[in-house]
C-alpha cells in the first residue's frame, strides 16, 4: 500500500505544496497555495538550461528563461559544492531577452557536477537540473604537487617513469666518441625493414650486422615490456602530412587495462593533447575502434621533431617529423596537345616523396603521371604524360606545411586533321628554367658543411672539457695533516677571490685580530656564515671543498705552502693539523655539514673557517695574523664571532639569518670594523673600535637601523645599506675622512654625514625604437663619475650625450636602436648604480590594414560576423578584443583565433543587439595600439509604436494614425503596409502602403455601420516587421440597430428538439440584416440564454432548438443582427414543452425473413416509433410464445431471443405494438435449418439415344424443408472435369442430354438449402465399359492391380500480394484416383459458384483467375481435394495493396 507524501520543500511553515506539471519536460513545479489569485501564476521555465560537455579552460554557461507573476527570483546551486566564488561563478540577467545566465569562465574539472536552477515567487517555485561535464586535457600540470610529494617520500620510480627515454635537447648530455643517438634505436624499432638503410645512413651507422643483432635483442626486451600493458600491437604508420593540412600517425593495439594512461612526447618533452575531434587544441589523440590516431593541426616549422607514444612507462611507437622548404619552386608550363609536361622543384632537405596535387586531387604514379626523385632526394619531378586540353589547371607540390603551385596551360594542336586525334609527341614542355643539379649540389654541400661544423663544435667542446678537467686536478685535495706544499700564485689568487666573493655575498662577524693579513670565513651552501679564526700566517688558510658544495674549515697552520684536509663523503672530521707553514691550512670537506675545524696554527697567510651545511660553528682559531679575520656566516642565527685579535686588516661582524646580534669586537686596527648584516632587521652594530680604517653599519633586509658605532678613524664611517630603502644612519664618528649614508635598493635617500652618496640611482627602463631616452643619476655632492655599458666605458658621440650639471649626471640617447639595449652602470668612486635599458617598438598596424579594418562589417541577423587584423609578429604581444568597451572572451558565440601575424574574431549567430563598436588592442611592454571598427547587424524593423489612434470615422471614411517603430533594424524604414479585416470575416485584405514619412492612412472603401480591424507593418530592405493591430474594431459611422422581428412560433416539438419560425422585422432602419440571434428562457426562471453568438448569426427565419430538456417548458425570442450589432428583441413565443407528439406505433425498416442454423441463437430485432410508448406482444404462428423464448424491450426497439434454436422453432413470429392512439402488426418468418442430408442412391436409365434419365431417392430433409432443392453434376472421361448441369431442381429426376457412346459418364446429386450443399450421391458409371462382356479366366488366377489412391497436393498455392485493380492467377496441382473433387474457399466460404472467380481444373492443375482484384478479395484461400479414399488441402493468403 502506498502512502501519499506532502511536498514541503520551498514552502513556508504551515503551507502544503502542490505538484504541478510544466509544459517543459524535466521541470519540477511546487505551488504553495491550492488556488491562485486571478492574474497571478507560479514560476515556470519556458526555456530550461541544456546539459553541457566542454573542455577545461573554456567558457561554460547555462541559460534559462522563466515566467511567473509576480516576477520570480532565480538562484543557482550545485550538488557538491557552493557557487559563491565570484571569480568562478557569475549569475547575470538580460532584461531585453529575459534570459538568466550562469557563467563559469575558464572552467576546471572540479566544476563538473549537477547544477540546479530555482525560480521562486510567493506562489511557488520551479526547479530544473542540468549536468556539466568537463573534459580534462591530456597532461595535467596540477599533478606536479603529487609528483613532488612522491619525491619527498623518496618514491623516485613513479616520478622518473613519466620521462621519455629520449631526453629534451636542453637536458641532452654530450655524446661520447662513437656513441649513437637513442633516437636511432627508437626509430628502428617502429620502422619497416625497407626503411632500415635510410635510417642507418642518416645516423652514420655502417655495421649492419651488428645493428641487426642489437636491434633484435632490444626488440625482444621491448616486446616483453609492451606485453604488460597492450596486446596485438600492429599497423604502425609513421607521421605524414594529410590533404587537409594536418599531420598524423596511426597505430593499433588493445589495452589490457582500459584505465592505463597514454602519454605523448615531442623531443623527450611531454605535450598536452585532447581526445575530442575538432577541438581548438593543437594536438589530438582519438580512438577509432582499435586504432589510435594522433593528429596535429596548424602546422608550423617548430612542430618538426621526434614524436613518441607511451602507455604508462613503455614506448609503443616513435616517428620523426621533418620540415623542408622549397629552394626552387615549380613554374608555369605551356604544353601543346599530346605533349608531356614537366614540373620540377628542389627542396632544402632530402625527402623520399612529395605529395603532388592536380586540380585539388592527389596524384599517384601511373599511366597518366610519372613521379621522379633524384638520388640525393632533393630534386622532385612530376611528368604529366600525353597532355590533353582537359588536363589544364593548377598543379601543386606539398612538402609538409610548405607548398608551391603553378598552372598547366594546354594549347590545342591546330595542325591536327579535323575529326582525328593528332599523333603523340615525343617532346617535353616545362621545367624550372634553372640548373637544378647545380642548386641541389650546392644544397648538399651546405648540408655536409653544417654537419662538419657540428662535429667541430662537439670536438671543441670535448677539448675544452678536457682542459677544464686538467685545470681542476691540482685543486683536488687529499686527507692530510700539517702538509708542507707551496701552491702557485695563480691558485692562491683564485682561492682568495672566491673567499672575498663569499664574504661580499654574506657578511660574517670578525673580531679585532692583530694581523697584517686576512682571515675570512668560508662560504656555506645553505647561505649560513662560516667563521674564520684569527690565525698567524703570511699566507692563506682556507677550508677544503665538500661534495655538497659547502666550505670546509681550515685550521690556522704555519706553512708557506698549502695544507688542506682531505675530503670525506660520510661527514666525519677531516681536520687539517695545526702545522707551521707559510702556505694554507684548510679543513677537510664534509657531506653532512659537521664541523671540519682548522687548528689554530700560526701563519703569515689567511685562516678561514670552514663552511657548514647545518649552520653549526665553523670557528677559526684566534691566531695572530697580518691578514683579515672575519666571522663565519651561520644559518641558524647563532653567533659566528671573530676572535679578538689585533690586526691591521679588517674586522667585520658576521651575518645572521634569525636576527640575533653579530657584533664586531672593539679591536684596535688600521682596517675596517663593520656591523654584520641581518635578515630580520635586528641591530648589527659595529663596535666602537679605534682604527684608521672604516666602521660601517651592517645591511638589513627589512629596513631597520644598522648603526655604525662612533669609532675614531681617519677613514670613513658609513651607514649600512637596506633592501627596502629605509634609512641607514651613519654614526657620528670622529674622523678626518668621510661619513656617507649607505646605498638603498629603491633609490631613496641614504643620509650621510658629509660623505658622497647616490640620492637617485638608475633603474630598468623601456625605450621606444627611434625615440630619445634619458638616464639620470643624482648625487648628494658635486663629484665626477663614469658611465659603462655592458662593462665597456661610454663617451659622448655616436648618438649618445653625457652631461653633468652640478650633482646631476645624465646619459641621453638621441635615437634608440636595438644596439643600445644593455646594462648601463654609473660609477663614482666606490659608489655605483646600474640599470638595464631595453629598446623595442610599440605595436603598430599597417595603414592599409587599418583602413580596411575601420570599414563597418554589416551582416544580417543569424549570420556570422568576422573581423581580421594583420600585424607584425612580436614577442610578449597581448591581443585583446572589445565590444562597446567590454573585453570579449573566447567561448559561447565568440571565437577568437590568435596567430603569430594576425588575429581573427568570429561572432556566431549575430543578433540585433550585437550592433556596436568592435575594437582590437595590441599591447606589449612598450605600449599599446588600438583599431576600431563597427558591427552593424541588419534585421527586420520592430513593429510600429501603438496604440493605433482613430483620427476620423464617418459613413464613408475611416482614418487611423500610428507612430514609427523604436528599432528600424539597422536600415531605414521604407514604407508601411496596411491590412484590413471586416468584422465577422477571417480574411485580411491589403489596402495599400504609405511612405515612411507618413504615419497615417485614410480608408475610403468602408460600409456604413460595419466594423473593421486594421494592422500595420513597417518594411525595410530586410523584410516586414511584426504587425501593430487595433485593439478594438472601428465602426464606419454611427451605430444603427434594427427593429424587432415578429413573435416566434412553435412549429413542432419533441423531447429532443423544438422547431421555431418567425418573420423579419418591419423596420430594418435602412441597414441590411445579416442574421438573427435566438434566446430561450425556461419556465419559472428570469434568465434569457442566447443560443448563438452575435458573430454567428442565424441566416434563416427558422431554427431548431436542440438544447432542451425532456419535459421542460420554454419560451423564445429573436433579435435581428446587422453590422452595428443585435437590435431589439421580439415578443416572447408561447410556452412549448419538449416532448414527442402522440402517434400510432409504426415499425422502421424491419426484416421479414431470417434463416438460422440449428443450435445457434435466434435474435429478431424490430425498431418502432410510438407516443406514448406502446405495449409489445410477440406471437408464434398466432399463438403465444413459449416461456423459454426471451423478449427484451428497450426504448424504440423490441428483441426476441431464442437461446438454442431447433428445427421446430421454424415459424412465423408476429410482433404487436399497441398504445392509446392505435396498434401495428408485423410478421417475421424464421427458418431454423441445417446442412441437408445427401440424397439416396442414384439410378441411370437410357430412354432414347443420347439421353440418360438420372433419378435418385429424395433426401430425408425434403419433407422438413420446403426450400430444399437438388443440384446435379456431370463428369465424362473426355474432359475429366466435374461441371454442374442442373441447379434448383425440386424434382427427383433429371434427363442428361448429349450422351455419346465410347465415353464414360458419372453423375453426382447434391441436396441444397439455405445452409449449403449436402454430401453428393454418386451414380454408377455409364458409357464405354458398361456393356462389356466379362471374360472368364478359365481357372487361371491373376493378380489384381489397383491404381486408386487418396488425393494429394503436388504443387501448393503461393502467397500473392497484387495491387488493387490488377488481375491475378492462382494455381496448384492435385492428384488422386479416382479423380478428386476440388473446391475453392475464401475465408471458409466456397467460391466455386461465385461469378467473380473463374475456376478451372485441367488434368489436376487447378486454376483460379480474378480479372480485377478488389479489397474484399483479400483473405485466406483454400483448395480442398476430396475422393472416396480421402481428402487433401492447401491454403495461402492474398494481400491486396493500395
Tell me about this structure.
- By secondary structure, this protein is mostly beta strands.
- The protein has 8 helices and 98 strands.
- The strands form 24 sheets. Strands 1, 2, 4, 6, 9 and 10 form a 6-stranded mixed beta sheet that branches. Strands 59, 60, 62, 63, 64 and 65 form a 6-stranded antiparallel beta sheet that branches.
- Residues 1-15, 139-162 and 476-753 have low confidence and may be disordered.
Question: Which terms would index this structure?
Answer:
mainly beta, 8 helices, 6-stranded mixed beta sheet, 38% strand, 6-stranded antiparallel beta sheet, 1442 residues, extended
User: Treating each run of at least 4 consecutive H or I residues as one helix, how many helices?
Assistant: 8
Oligomer designation: single chain
* Approximate helicity band: under 10%
Label the structural class.
mainly beta
Taking the sheet with the most strands, its summary is: 6 strands, mixed
* Number of extended strands: 98
Average pLDDT, to the nearest integer?
A: 75
Uncertain runs: 1-15, 139-162, 476-753
Large-scale geometry: extended
How far apart are the termini?
53 Å
Amino acid at each position: 500500500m502506498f502512502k501519499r507524501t506532502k511536498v514541503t520543500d520551498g514552502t513556508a511553515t504551515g503551507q502544503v505544496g502542490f505538484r504541478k506539471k510544466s509544459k517543459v519536460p524535466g521541470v519540477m513545479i511546487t505551488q504553495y497555495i491550492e488556488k491562485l489569485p486571478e492574474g497571478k501564476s507560479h514560476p515556470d521555465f519556458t526555456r530550461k538550461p541544456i546539459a553541457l560537455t566542454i573542455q577545461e579552460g573554456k567558457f561554460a554557461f547555462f541559460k534559462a528563461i522563466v515566467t511567473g507573476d509576480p516576477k520570480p527570483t532565480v538562484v543557482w546551486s550545485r550538488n557538491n559544492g557552493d557557487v559563491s566564488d565570484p571569480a568562478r561563478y557569475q549569475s547575470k540577467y538580460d532584461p531585453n531577452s529575459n534570459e538568466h545566465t550562469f557563467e563559469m569562465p575558464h572552467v576546471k574539472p572540479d566544476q563538473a557536477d549537477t547544477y540546479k536552477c530555482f525560480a521562486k515567487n510567493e506562489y511557488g517555485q520551479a526547479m530544473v537540473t542540468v549536468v556539466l561535464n568537463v573534459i580534462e586535457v591530456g597532461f595535467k600540470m596540477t599533478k606536479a604537487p603529487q609528483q613532488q610529494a612522491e619525491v619527498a617520500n623518496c618514491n623516485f620510480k613513479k616520478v622518473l617513469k613519466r620521462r621519455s627515454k629520449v631526453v629534451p635537447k636542453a637536458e641532452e648530455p654530450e655524446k661520447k666518441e662513437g656513441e649513437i643517438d637513442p633516437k636511432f634505436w627508437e626509430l628502428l624499432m617502429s620502422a619497416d625493414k625497407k626503411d632500415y638503410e635510410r635510417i642507418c645512413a642518416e645516423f652514420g651507422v655502417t655495421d649492419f650486422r651488428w645493428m641487426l643483432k642489437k636491434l633484435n635483442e632490444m626488440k625482444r626486451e621491448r616486446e616483453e615490456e609492451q606485453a604488460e600493458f597492450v596486446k596485438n600491437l600492429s599497423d604502425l604508420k609513421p607521421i605524414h602530412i594529410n590533404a587537409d593540412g594536418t599531420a598524423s600517425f596511426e597505430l593499433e593495439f588493445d589495452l589490457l587495462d582500459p584505465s592505463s594512461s597514454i602519454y605523448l612526447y615531442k623531443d623527450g618533452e611531454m605535450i598536452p593533447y585532447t581526445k575530442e575531434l575538432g577541438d581548438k587544441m593543437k594536438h589530438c589523440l582519438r580512438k577509432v575502434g582499435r586504432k589510435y590516431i594522433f593528429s596535429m593541426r596548424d602546422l608550423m616549422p617548430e612542430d618538426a621533431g621526434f614524436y613518441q607514444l607511451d602507455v604508462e612507462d613503455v614506448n609503443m611507437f616513435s616517428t620523426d617529423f621533418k620540415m623542408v622548404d622549397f629552394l626552387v619552386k615549380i613554374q608555369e608550363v605551356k604544353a601543346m596537345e599530346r605533349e608531356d609536361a614537366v614540373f620540377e622543384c628542389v627542396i632544402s632537405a632530402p625527402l623520399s616523396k612529395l605529395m603532388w596535387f592536380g586540380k585539388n586531387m592527389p596524384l599517384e604514379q601511373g599511366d597518366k603521371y610519372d613521379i621522379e626523385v633524384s638520388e640525393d632526394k632533393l630534386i622532385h619531378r612530376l611528368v604529366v604524360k600525353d597532355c590533353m586540353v582537359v588536363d589544364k589547371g593548377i598543379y601543386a607540390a606539398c612538402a609538409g606545411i610548405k607548398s608551391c603551385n603553378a598552372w598547366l596551360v594546354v594549347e590545342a594542336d591546330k595542325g591536327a586533321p579535323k575529326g582525328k586525334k593528332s599523333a603523340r609527341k615525343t617532346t617535353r614542355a616545362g621545367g624550372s628554367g634553372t640548373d637544378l643539379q647545380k642548386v641541389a649540389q650546392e644544397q648538399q654541400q651546405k648540408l655536409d658543411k653544417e654537419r662538419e661544423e657540428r662535429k667541430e663544435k662537439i670536438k671543441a667542446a670535448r677539448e675544452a672539457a678536457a682542459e677544464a678537467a686538467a685545470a681542476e686536478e691540482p685543486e683536488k685535495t687529499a686527507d692530510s695533516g700539517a702538509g708542507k706544499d707551496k701552491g702557485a700564485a695563480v691558485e692562491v689568487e683564485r682561492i682568495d677571490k672566491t673567499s672575498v666573493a663569499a664574504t661580499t655575498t654574506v657578511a660574517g662577524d670578525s673580531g679585532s685580530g692583530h694581523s697584517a693579513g686576512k682571515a675570512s670565513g668560508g662560504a656555506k651552501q645553505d647561505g649560513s656564515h662560516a667563521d674564520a679564526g684569527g690565525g698567524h700566517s703570511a699566507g692563506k688558510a682556507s677550508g677544503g671543498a665538500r661534495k655538497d658544495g659547502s666550505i670546509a674549515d681550515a685550521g690556522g697552520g704555519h706553512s708557506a705552502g698549502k695544507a688542506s684536509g682531505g675530503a670525506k663523503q660520510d661527514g666525519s672530521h677531516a681536520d687539517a693539523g695545526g702545522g707551521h707553514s707559510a702556505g694554507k691550512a684548510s679543513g677537510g670537506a664534509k657531506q653532512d655539514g659537521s664541523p671540519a675545524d682548522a687548528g689554530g696554527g700560526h701563519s703569515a697567510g689567511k685562516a678561514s673557517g670552514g663552511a657548514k651545511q647545518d649552520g653549526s660553528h665553523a670557528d677559526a682559531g684566534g691566531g695572530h695574523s697580518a691578514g683579515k679575520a672575519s666571522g663565519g656566516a651561520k644559518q641558524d642565527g647563532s653567533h659566528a664571532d671573530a676572535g679578538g685579535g689585533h690586526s691591521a686588516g679588517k674586522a667585520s661582524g658576521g651575518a645572521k639569518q634569525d636576527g640575533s646580534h653579530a657584533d664586531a669586537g672593539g679591536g684596535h686596527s688600521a682596517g675596517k670594523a663593520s656591523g654584520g648584516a641581518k635578515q630580520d632587521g635586528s641591530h648589527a652594530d659595529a663596535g666602537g673600535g679605534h682604527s684608521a680604517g672604516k666602521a660601517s653599519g651592517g645591511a638589513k633586509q627589512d629596513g631597520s637601523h644598522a648603526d655604525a658605532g662612533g669609532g675614531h678613524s681617519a677613514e670613513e664611517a658609513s651607514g649600512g645599506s637596506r633592501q627596502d630603502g629605509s634609512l641607514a644612519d651613519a654614526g657620528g664618528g670622529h674622523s678626518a675622512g668621510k661619513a656617507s649614508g649607505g646605498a638603498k635598493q629603491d633609490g631613496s635617500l641614504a643620509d650621510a654625514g658629509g660623505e658622497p652618496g647616490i640620492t637617485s640611482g638608475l633603474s630598468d627602463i623601456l625605450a621606444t625604437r627611434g625615440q630619445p631616452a634619458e638616464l639620470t643619476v643624482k648625487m648628494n655632492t658635486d663629484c665626477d663619475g663614469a658611465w659603462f655599458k655592458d662593462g665597456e666605458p661610454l663617451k659622448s658621440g655616436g648618438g649618445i650625450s653625457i652631461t653633468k650639471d652640478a650633482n646631476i649626471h645624465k646619459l641621453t640617447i638621441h635615437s634608440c636602436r636595438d644596439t643600445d639595449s644593455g646594462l648601463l652602470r654609473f660609477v663614482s668612486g666606490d659608489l655605483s648604480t646600474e640599470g638595464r635599458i631595453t629598446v623595442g617598438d610599440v605595436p603598430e598596424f599597417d595603414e592599409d590594414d587599418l583602413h580596411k579594418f575601420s570599414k563597418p562589417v554589416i551582416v544580417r541577423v543569424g549570420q556570422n560576423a568576422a573581423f581580421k587584423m594583420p600585424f607584425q609578429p612580436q614577442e610578449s604581444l597581448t591581443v585583446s578584443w572589445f565590444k562597446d568597451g567590454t573585453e570579449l572572451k573566447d567561448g559561447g558565440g565568440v571565437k577568437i583565433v590568435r596567430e603569430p601575424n594576425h588575429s581573427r574574431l568570429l561572432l556566431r549567430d549575430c543578433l540585433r543587439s550585437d550592433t556596436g563598436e568592435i575594437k582590437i588592442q595590441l599591447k606589449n611592454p612598450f605600449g599599446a595600439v588600438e583599431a576600431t571598427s563597427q558591427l552593424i547587424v541588419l534585421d527586420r524593423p520592430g513593429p510600429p509604436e501603438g496604440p493605433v489612434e482613430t483620427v476620423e470615422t464617418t459613413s464613408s471614411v475611416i482614418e487611423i494614425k500610428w507612430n514609427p517603430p523604436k528599432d528600424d533594424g539597422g536600415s531605414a524604414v521604407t514604407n508601411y503596409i496596411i491590412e484590413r479585416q471586416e468584422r465577422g470575416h477571417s480574411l485580411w485584405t491589403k489596402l495599400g502602403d504609405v511612405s515612411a514619412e507618413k504615419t497615417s492612412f485614410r480608408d475610403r472603401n468602408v460600409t456604413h455601420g460595419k466594423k473593421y480591424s486594421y494592422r500595420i507593418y513597417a518594411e525595410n530592405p530586410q523584410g516586414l516587421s511584426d504587425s501593430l493591430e487595433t485593439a478594438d474594431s472601428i465602426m464606419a459611422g454611427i451605430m444603427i440597430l434594427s427593429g424587432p422581428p415578429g413573435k416566434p412560433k412553435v412549429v413542432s416539438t419533441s423531447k429532443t428538439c423544438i422547431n421555431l419560425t418567425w418573420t423579419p422585422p418591419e423596420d430594418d432602419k435602412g441597414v441590411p440584416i445579416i442574421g438573427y440571434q435566438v434566446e430561450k428562457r425556461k419556465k419559472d426562471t428570469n434568465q434569457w440564454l442566447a443560443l448563438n453568438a452575435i458573430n454567428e448569426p442565424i441566416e434563416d427565419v427558422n431554427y431548431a432548438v436542440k438544447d432542451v430538456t425532456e419535459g421542460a417548458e420554454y419560451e423564445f425570442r429573436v433579435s435581428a443582427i446587422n453590422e452595428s450589432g443585435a437590435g431589439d428583441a421580439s415578443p416572447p413565443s408561447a410556452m412549448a414543452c419538449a416532448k414527442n407528439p402522440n402517434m400510432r406505433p409504426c415499425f422502421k425498416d424491419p426484416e421479414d425473413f431470417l434463416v438460422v442454423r440449428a443450435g445457434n441463437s435466434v435474435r429478431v430485432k424490430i425498431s418502432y416509433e410510438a407516443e406514448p410508448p406502446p405495449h409489445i406482444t410477440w406471437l408464434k404462428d398466432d399463438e403465444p410464445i413459449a416461456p423459454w423464448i426471451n423478449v427484451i424491450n428497450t426504448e424504440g426497439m423490441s428483441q426476441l431471443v431464442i437461446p438454442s434454436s431447433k428445427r421446430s422453432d421454424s415459424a412465423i413470429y408476429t410482433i404487436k405494438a399497441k398504445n392509446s392512439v392505435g396498434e401495428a402488426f408485423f410478421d417475421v418468418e424464421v427458418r431454423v435449418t441445417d446442412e441437408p442430408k445427401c440424397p439416396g442412391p442414384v439410378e441411370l436409365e437410357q430412354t432414347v439415344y443420347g439421353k440418360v434419365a438420372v433419378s435418385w431417392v429424395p433426401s430425408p430433409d425434403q419433407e422438413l424443408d420446403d426450400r430444399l432443392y437438388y443440384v446435379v453434376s456431370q463428369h465424362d472421361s473426355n474432359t475429366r472435369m466435374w461441371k454442374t448441369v442442373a441447379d434448383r431442381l425440386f424434382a427427383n429426376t433429371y434427363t442428361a442430354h448429349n450422351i455419346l457412346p465410347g465415353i464414360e459418364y458419372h453423375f453426382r446429386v447434391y441436396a441444397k438449402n439455405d445452409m449449403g450443399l449436402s454430401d453428393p450421391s454418386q451414380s454408377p458409371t455409364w458409357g464405354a465399359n458398361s456393356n462389356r462382356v466379362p471374360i472368364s479366366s478359365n481357372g487361371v488366377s491373376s493378380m489384381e492391380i489397383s491404381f486408386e489412391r487418396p488425393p494429394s497436393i503436388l504443387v501448393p498455392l503461393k502467397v500473392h500480394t497484387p495491387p488493387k485493380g490488377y488481375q491475378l492467377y492462382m494455381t496448384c496441382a492435385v492428384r488422386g484416383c479416382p479423380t478428386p473433387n476440388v473446391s475453392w474457399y475464401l475465408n471458409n466460404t466456397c467460391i466455386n459458384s461465385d461469378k467473380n472467380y473463374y475456376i478451372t481444373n485441367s488434368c489436376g492443375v487447378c486454376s483460379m483467375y480474378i480479372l480485377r482484384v478488389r479489397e474484399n478479395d483479400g483473405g485466406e484461400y483454400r483448395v480442398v481435394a476430396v475422393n472416396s479414399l480421402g481428402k487433401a488441402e492447401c491454403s495461402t493468403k492474398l494481400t491486396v495493396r493500395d
